[in-house]
Amino acid sequence: MAEKHFKYVILGGGVAAGYAAREFAKHGLNPGELAIISKEAVAPYERPALSKGYLFPQGAARLPGFHVCVGSGGERLLPEWYSENGIELILSTEIVKADLASKTLTSAAGATFTYDILIIATGSTVINLSDFGTPGANANNIFYLREIDDADKLVAAIEAKKNGKVVIVGGGYIGLELSAVMKMNNFDVTMVYPEPWCMPRLFTSDIAAFYEGYYANKGVKIDKGTLVVGFDSDANGDVTSVKLKDGRALEADIVVVGVGGRPLTKLFKAQVEEEKGGIKTDGFFQTSVPGVYAVGDVATFPMKLYNDVRRVEHVDHARKSAEQAVKMESCWGLSWKVDHQMRPRQ
Fold it and tell me: Which residues form a coiled coil (predicted)?
């Protein structure tokens, strides 16, 4: 299989990839200089839609309606936008090996891609309860939500289990959003989370009490301060109940788990400096390896506000870190070009 070379490669096809591509286009690209390599089958899209509008019972959001950059009020970048701007979309392609020293990426199908500049925008993967050996966690109709394929499977289950019972595991963004949208779909909804209140990393107890009261008034039942320890299923392997640590069992036709994510940094282990679970960068999202940037969920970067380095899992950070990295690379490249053009010939 022939090797393909690009000046710039964005590895990952999520929100950060789309915003980085737009920024590259703003600064000027030659056709064929930039490629986005993504294991998803579609062009970059606004991922938050999957836990909101995509699941609405009426007027549900569908592509191409929420391709980037509509989430920030910008232009919707349809697949043809990339080709019109000379950007190659390499979709349905999973990279299984990254060699930063030789600037080479290898796909599961054996294709190789080389680059001059790499932007790591691999994002996160969901934390799966089966990773902890939770009994019954592999039963049918237990869902996680990260990519559009996950959302499609959940949509099919909502249709198949109309007016049924759903248990939402987790009290963070995904838990709150899925509880609301499943109630809109006329499901009996119960949220379960071990913390004393929802969104504990962001909400005070008083703020959380307001939201919990609001959800309760909408008919959402909340079980907090207890852990999920297992699942029961029927002869077909379909989940039937959720077992709690306090001994109770909650009936369930569908379970949606939202207990956090892990940054996808495995490809780069022992090749780049890491900190706090992510790839360490400077304020311009440059890593310890020259010519390699990390943006979005995978980046651990300095935050002056806290005088600390942190990793942030938020869509706004994905957008802005991607733009910042491209601005830095574009400015550096322009400065290098001008400097060399202005030097007197020897």
Answer: none
Beta strands 142-144; 124-126: pairing state: unpaired
User: Tokens 């959302």 map to which residue?
Assistant: 151
Residue 28 CA, chain-centre distance (Å), reads 27
Considering only CA atoms, which of 289, 252, 259 is closest in space to residue 272?
289
Residue 94 belongs to what H/E stretch? none
pTM: 0.93
CB < 8 Å & 24+ apart, contacts of 225-231: 225/194, 225/195, 225/196, 226/192, 226/194, 227/194, 228/129, 228/134, 228/169, 228/192, 229/134, 229/135, 230/134, 230/135, 230/136, 230/137, 231/134, 231/135, 231/136, 231/137, 231/139, 231/142, 231/255
pLDDT for residue 332: 60
What is the average pLDDT across 72-96? 97
Residue whose tokens read 């930039």: 34
